[in-house]
Task: structure prediction
Amino acid sequence: MSGFTSQDSATRISVGQAITPEELRSSGASADEATARYALMLGDDSLMLAQRLGAWISRAPELEEDIALGNIALDLLGHARFFLTYAGSAWGKTEDDLAYFRDEEEFRSVRLVEQDNGDFGKTIARQLIFSFYARELYSRLVDSADETLAAIADKALKEVDYHQDHAAQWVRRLGGGTEESHRRMQAGLEDVWAYVEELFVDVDPTTQLAEADIAVLPSSLREPVMQRLRTVIEEAGLTVPEVKGAYGADRTGRFSEHRGYILAEMQVLARQHPGATW
Amino acid sequence: MSAQQAHLQAVGSQAAAEPITEQARRAADEARVGWERFQELIAEDKRVEPRDWMPDHYRKTLVRQVSQHAHSEIIGMQPEGNWITRAPSLKRKAVLMAKVQDEAGHGLYLYSAAETLGTSRDEMYQQLYTGKAKYSSIFNYPARTWADVGAIGWLVDGAAITNQVPLCRASYGPYGRAMVRICKEESFHQRQGWEILYTLSHGTEAQKQMAQDAVDRFYGPALQMFGPPDDESPNSQQSMAWNIKRFSNDELRQRFVDMIVPQAEALGLTLPDPDLKWNEERGHYDFGELDWDEFFSVVKGNGPLNHQRLAHYRRARDEGAWVREAAAAYAAKQDAQARETALLSA
Result:
């Protein structure tokens, strides 16, 4: 895979060496069945969250936030494209086959990323949790025995570094800003907290892949991620919610009620013209 | 009052009056020197910078033009933003997201350029919010189909570039420099739009029809983006004298038509104008009369989506107010804390 440095602009800052999904595809890297299923989980998480965040553009509280949320969505969409391209290599499918022509029960995303945007506080709460989780995950996945996963993680890591910084700064501002912002930020955390636990549940085939040093065992992320989340939340003068994890956390089809709506919107045009090129 | 007191008072008032006269005289001198310098800069086609003296009318004209341009970028995020969640491939979704984000970036550059003229971003926001400020009428048309995203890129961004390339040489420095960057990104957007249409027009019958329909709807409004015909454009002459505007509305419109006709042929799509034909003598394409009643009606607020575009903007501002207040309150607290720490350590 040849690296390149993209041009910086007001809206995008390059992160140095980068790969593209097209390069990944033409590299001929091919995943085995288990690795593909793992890549699918990671890709679906990023795709759903990108889809959610993309809806903020032109609706953010300030112009700089339209840009920041758009930038994060774009990064996540990039991660999704890598993971789905790699997953598809096992089954002769493209990223678009997987994104547009799978049904609800075939997606493997966690419920956290499917939650609606709510107000800015809820979106930031979801961002805080996911970006801290992704940061920890990719910082370990860079050492994966699977070279392709390691390369994707290396690119994503630089980006999620910025995502967690963005989220943590907003948690501090909203937690310590006004009475209203404090209340809304706390409510945002309460709203999504039941879906944190699912990120750390060991599911098939991740457990076996972790033994082979290909995947990162989700349960091994719980302690470091929760520790860092607690610190940021408490430093912002907020309270870590005492909400139990929602039942059914296994990525295998017990998805949120939101998923159908997300897919209906995302897939509508592609499915109206099956086989068409865009 | 004794004679002495009267004398003192007279001297006193004279002493007080003198500096004022002096001040006024100095200001008048500065204005005269400034005016001469400004005339020189314009005559020599050089740049006017924020600290240079400039006539009030020049400043106002620029604030109006630059802020309108910024507002157009902001409202322009809506029609295409509307397709981000439904883009038909992940690559197209990424490209569109980046494009709409670029528009937000252009808005930022332009608001910053306008701020150097002494009008704050909040003030400009307020003008847009209350409906006092104008933005490009083209964004009051709906983006109904995916092909509209292509047509907006090809025709709307294409018209914008035709308009904006000469603005890179605008006499006001910060505006001209912002335009250089914007034009680079816009020309990228135009190629992306053309490429969307090319893919559609070479795709299935339904896709080709979708592309033709979008071009049919956007052609007229895109040509109207250059503004009314020259004889109905009262502000143009002054702007040209000041080197803000370099070509007239009709000149730019002609340049645009000459550019898109061969591009439409390459797309395999037709432009909806039966009078469109090459004029050998003029060395340009002739084209039919545009529907100016429609244009003025949309400008006055009666376009298909004038109300909705503004309502969307207002809703975002209203719903985000608590976030902006929180950020300001937090920053103030941080400042106060920093001052206190500085005092304690002093």
Chain B touches chain A through 53 residues (CB under 8 Å). The mean pLDDT of chain B is 92. The two ends of chain B are 55 Å apart (CA to CA). The longest strand of chain B covers residues 277-279.
